[in-house]
Amino acid sequence: MKHLDEYRDAGLAQGLARRIREASRKTVNFMEFCGGHTVTIARYGIESLLPPTVRLLSGPGCPVCVTPMEQIDWMIAVAGLPEVTVATYGDMLRVPGSGASLAGERGRGADVRIVYSSYDAIELARENPGRQVVFFGIGFETTAPATAAAVLKARELGLENFSVVSAHKTTPGIIKALLDTDELKLDGLICPGHVSVITGTAPYTYAAGHGVPCVISGFEPLDVLQSVLMLVEQAEQGRAQVEIQYRRGVRPNGNEKARRMLDEVFEPADSNWRGIGVVPGTGMKLKPAFSRWDAFALFKPELPETVEPAGCICGRVLRGAASPADCALFGSRCTPADPVGACMVSSEGACQAHYRFRRK
Amino acid sequence: MCLGIPGKVESLEGNTAKVLFGDTLRKVSLDLLSEEVTPGDYVIVHAGFALERIDEREALITLEILKEAAGLETPR
């Protein structure tokens, strides 16, 4: 397929890898922020092409992984309420809460539907006027505009049986929080391509201003290799700039229309990140004008006591402070078929990516 | 989760497009797009919404840079 196959050429990958090996002198730690990049790196064995001087760390850009347990418990509890239909992206279905999961609730008779798009949830509400349809909005700036569009559509249609949960998160504040800790010494950031389609380069100016080279990367293997080469070159030359490798999709100013819709519907809120804690201004909550469609305002389910899985080091993995193999549970008690922590549940979680592609 | 897949716009109807991914045709909303698209354009699609039109000129430049970088040191 056009715009995919060109970026998977094995010969070009070997050539790029050779260039990286030739250019790399200093030992560097680069973080791939996005879970999508984690999967590309694992699936295509990118690390095996890199010299020992270049080390890649997974970051917090896996929405399912960083959603705190109490929010997952809240969503599972809402699914169990009478007359409620939950509409969610497939990623959320198997995430374990303190007790059950959405899949488990569905097994007990809850009406949980997997939707492809937030507009499918709007359709569900129109087709089922006797039920309250609750859409679970989770993800970063890539995903949040679709939630905003659904809220605006619900207002336009005067839909009274539709609401959204906004568990959305934003990137600038968490990048700053990660860089401001002493735990992590980063020499470069592989920046999330599809977040940047919406945001443009703005979220990374803080990092570049603090000496960390940034490259906004596409998601195919050659995209990632080229981004690593661009970061190595910045590091070797002592530069720290925001560069765009994913030029076919990312404009420096991002998608201004999508951002206007975000600004119309959401306002910044403090947000709790699993394994990291509360980071000011990194959440998105519905503005008061839209409280009619805010599930957090409409439903007050009874919640179980929050129980974090014992022995799981997901939090440290999400901060780039540990790798999945450092966890005593990894691959033994914790596998994709029987996951303990969120990083093993999500297909783009660092633990599941390591397990599926690296342990062969 | 922030997956975006390139697809080719086949036809337009109001603010919805039919977009071809390989040999699968899907309805995609254009509500988030800043720019106009026409049939034949490629768009990046995430969860049923087109997020951006793919810039063909930039794609060609990227491929040129890639080939140059990969081939420059090829011993022949």
From TrEMBL, chain A:
One of its GO terms (biological process) is protein maturation. It holds the Pfam family HypD. Signal peptide: none annotated. Keywords: Iron, Metal-binding. It comes from the Bacteria. GO terms for molecular function: 4 iron, 4 sulfur cluster binding; carbon monoxide binding; iron ion binding. Belongs to the HypD family. This is Hydrogenase formation protein HypD. It comes from Candidatus Glassbacteria bacterium RIFCSPLOWO2_12_FULL_58_11.
From TrEMBL, chain B:
InterPro entries: Hydgase_assmbl_chp_CS, Hydrogenase_HupF/HypC. It holds the Pfam family HupF_HypC. GO terms for molecular function: carbon dioxide binding; iron ion binding. It comes from the Bacteria. One of its GO terms (biological process) is protein maturation. NCBIfam families: hypC_hupF. Belongs to the HupF/HypC family. This is Hydrogenase assembly protein HypC.
